[in-house]
Amino acid sequence: MSFLKNVFTKITDTDTKQWIVVEPKQLSIRDSESIYYSHLYPKTTETALTLPQKLVVDMVKTSLQKKEVRNKAVPRLPTVIPRLLRSLRDPESSARDYVDIIDKDPVMSATVLKLANSVYFNPIGARINDIERAVVKLGIDGLRSVLSAAVMQPIVQRESTYFSRTGQKMWHHSLSCAVACEQIAEHRQQEKFKVYVMGLVHDIGKITVFSELCKQFKLNEEDVKPGNNAFSPIMKVLAPAVSYWVAKDWDLPKDICKAIAEQLNLQPGNKLSPYGHILYQANMVTECHATIRHKNESLANSVLKELDLPENLYEKLDQLSREY
Asked: Among the CATH numbers 1.20.1270, 3.30.450, 1.10.3210, 3.40.50, which is that of 2-73+164-321?
């Protein structure tokens, strides 16, 4: 952990209000994290890492600390995201501006329409077949959220030959976390769209480390297939730092960068910024929804209650699960 010691020293506390990390009695932060990693990388019969695999892990750990490596490993943030963030308080911002952006990209248009027709964004179920109608149905706020998800999906959802559906699981978690952030912010009467974007991007470190490991293991061309123990340990240590570095590389707003930084080494009693606390709770409840709720509903409900979150939050996440 020494290489992370001074990663966040430049982050200063400018928030007038701090929130305290309260850990659910029956589900610790670390247990939730471990269960979620087992969900991402199902455990099989595993042997100790081979020497070449150890070298790959060490190389990825070192290389991703360098901005020039990250710039090659992580796609550039689509320019529409900063534009959407800037437009939040712009009274001149119009739906037509966003329609023009979407219409220029057929892939984005298809993704926007798919999201606009999902149960979460379109609970009534009236089919939306064109972008103009999507704008009318979703409204400007809904369109911003759908557009943000559409441009982030190809960055987040990157697949691998080593674990089937891991990329899909990470994308679903990111989208679910964005929705959870939005719901918690609304519950606390805080700005919703910015935390929605924060939820979408918060796990970019996991995705980046995963993709780099997969690429390097494939280049290694060993007969021994890497398992959970080749991914989880380094992900737990490195991914939160990479998420922060990438957020800084992308020039995301300072409060989003700070919130992501605060997720490193979370402990009960930690003092967090308002956004950092929303992200902590949204991430935990989203992990719980994906891994525990359908196996132990009473435990999942107790987590929701102890974190003092909206009672219908799991129902909102269920709507997403029907689509992904």
From this structure: 1.10.3210
